[in-house]
Specification:
159 residues; single chain
Length: 159
Amino acid sequence: MDTGSYGPGEAALAADGTKSDIDVANSEADVAKNEVPLGSRAPEFIRARRMLHLSWQVAIFVVGLAVVVTGVIMLPLPGPGWVVIFAGMAIWATEFVWAQLVLRWTKRKVTEATQRALDPKVRRRNIILTSIGLVIVAGLVGFYVWKFGFEVPWNIKNQ
């Protein structure tokens, strides 16, 4: 008999051993409870004054924009581009709800990808594919060295 009173650590299982829709919704609600509420994280004295808060938001936006643009520049250049972009998003998330939502979505997707990557079947498949790729690259490099020696391609004569 289902009374619907699931306390912490309790879970109702369906006949096939899976969680019910109620439990999935409850676990999502628990995750939402653990997250920081949306909205400005500016100090109270700043939020109390409209013009000061607006100036604060403009400053946060400009600093976040500078960090994100720096990260975008680092994508093709040497440097941790994606890390810097996410740092800029975190700066924006201190003040803007849209950035907080984007950051929560990104964290959820990264967590899901991490869990999938730790699956033994997926790890085995990735190791096999990486090994095949390395064998192919080694074969191509070996053929090139056999055919042309240790010569850079633009200096090869008589192709």
